[in-house]
Amino acid sequence: MARFDDGDDVLFELQKIAQDENIRAASFHLVGGIKRGRFVVGPEQEEMPPVPMWRELSESHELVGFGTIFWQGEVPKIHFHGVYGKRDNVKTGCLREAAQVFLVLEAVIMEIKGVDARRELDPASGMVLLRM
What we know:
- The structure is a single chain.
- By secondary structure, the chain is mostly beta strands.
- The protein has a single domain (about 1-130), classed as CATH 3.30.1330.80.
- It contains one helix and eight strands, in the order E-H-E-E-E-E-E-E-E.
- It has one helix at about 10-20, and strands at about 1-5, 25-45, 50-55, 60-70, 75-85, 90-110, 120, 125-130.
- The protein starts with a strand and ends with a strand.
- The mean pLDDT is about 95.
């Protein structure tokens, strides 16, 4: 379990937890608030390599979502897909940058033992993908 407070960078903090606790594989859920963040909503075209379409949060939103942690070399990599809502406006996508907590954000982290999983660069897509 982890709690992140107003202004924390949730992606950085999750990465730090994985490093400090040597969590090599995990899944996690997030619930709470976010006030800044850059996320990808899909590729512009269904072609390789994909060109991501970016969106940005610039004010507080409710957040709920699911993610994974697997290492690429000596660094834990976070992969998180979430739903971000404010009033009647709802967005969804892969949170990748500048993920700043609003008020409080809770994480439930579940370590996965006994798997040989890692992230590696995929030459065809140019993305860092899960390999087992």
